[in-house]
Amino acid sequence: MNIADAINKAREQGLTDEEILEAIKKQNPDKEAAFLKAQERGMSSTDILNETIKQDKKKEVPDVEPPESFKNRLPEKPTEESKIWMRVFVTIGLSAIAAFSFTVLYRAFFVPRLEPISPQVIVRETRIPDINYPLIKLFPEIDDIQRFAITVDEEYLLHLRRILREEREGEIIRIIAEDQREEVRTPRITDLEDFFGVFGVDYPERLFEKINKDFDLYVYTGEAESRLGFVVPFDRENREDVETIMRLTWEKEIEKSFRSLFSFFDVEIPVTEDDLLSTSYQGDMPRPVSIRYREGERNIGLYYTITDDRLIFATSLQAIQTLIDRYYELVK
To answer: Which pLDDT value is given to residue 161?
Structure first.
């Protein structure tokens, strides 16, 4: 017996629709929720039973819910906003596909193919320039040699400043700078003309006709602050010419000529029309030598002397006296 016949038979027996519906709920607990929902929506027990009979006659799956309830289960129509976003996403996707396709075609037809580059080993021969024998006596147990390479003038100043600031006692450091600037084809040892160029020192026009460009640069560390000095050789027969150039030509402008050098030490040498002062020093030598000088601040100044074949320059009296003694130790 189907459910429609069971409902009609129960009515014939005199049961009310409410009693029949309660019996169906008990026999079909899984449909109780659907019946209650229908009642909440305003359907009476009679309406629910009639709808159940109708559904049973159509041989459909029994569903006590009213047909209107199926409308709530249908998917909602997309809103205008969702349609717009869908168009945006579709447009972006198509644009990305088009851009990728264009890139592939462009690279395939217009970008040249790069051949792999094999690494090559370039071998360059580097020559280390030789240095001359020192122009004064050096003692290995207390003295030192500092050698460095420069590719620009500023490196010369940086290395020199570093060496001057190092704390040492009672020694002489020979400074050797290798010139490795781009315009120099073969590395070489910097000379006095290079030194003057780095510090912007002006010198008499005929100076290098009488003295050598090769020179020795030294740092003297026997004072509270390290001092600088250099020794330049010349031929003995040129001594009078060297003295003439120094006394009659260079001394007139020597304070201005070395202004940049002493700015490096943060010292100013006074410019005056007075002649340089003179003092003598003998030490262990058989006869004294004359030292010409102009003194500045912190016992730093211009000091030079001319021996038989050397021009010796230093930035303090003690430094030039030490260089003179070392020169005598070499030639005695």
So the answer is: 94
